[in-house]
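Morning!

This is the sequence you dropped in the shared folder:
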Amino acid sequence: MTLAAGAQAATVNLTSFGRSDLAGAQRAHDDFLSQYTVSNLRSETFEDKAAWNGAVGTTNPQNTNVGGFTTLGGTGSGASHINGGTGLEVRGDNDMNWGRFNADRLDNDLIGGKWLDSNDTLGMKWEVSGLGAFNALSFFLIDAADVGGKFSIKVGESLFSQVLGAAGRAANGNIQLVTILLPEAVTSLTVELFNDRLNDGFGIDGASVANVAPIPVPPAAALLLTGVLALGALGRRRRA
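The structure's back. Tokens below.
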């Protein structure tokens, strides 16, 4: 699903995968980056953050490799909430019954690491700044809109409303590869990920920001293309 908010605004793309196709989602992320010449790539997997252990953990993580994350408010009270349900939480309990899990690539491609969880709040604010110029963002979105919520994304001032959930509940544990392309490089940006209700928790993982550009055409290939176009023009003139 590709969403555009106008010629001078961001383009957001969601590619859906089932819970059992995490490896496919990871390959799709690699394919996304392989389309471009990539510079200033920064990634956050939350693996170096303390996960909630029943007493302490990492709430609303700031100063990550890709910026800071805070809750958009509301107090989660669903069965999956932890630590009072008032903030985002880094989690690592991949055997939880509510469909969220680590999604970044581990050495063996198996689930077993950490992710950032909405903790049944209304959603997340992701503030990117101080990282140099970038024009692309990507992340895995896990288990969004599977309880009846309608999930939206806001990139800067551009709102992409109800991109999940408007047509009915998504599958438990669904994976979305979300990619965002900006019309020009920026040095700061706010991205909001949110539901229209509490207690429809989701997670994100493998968040990255980068500056991307089309891969240059090799000189030989450019000359070949020019020659093919010239031959085509010559053939049309002869037929005329």
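Headline: The chain has two helices and eleven strands.

More detail when I'm at my desk.
O.
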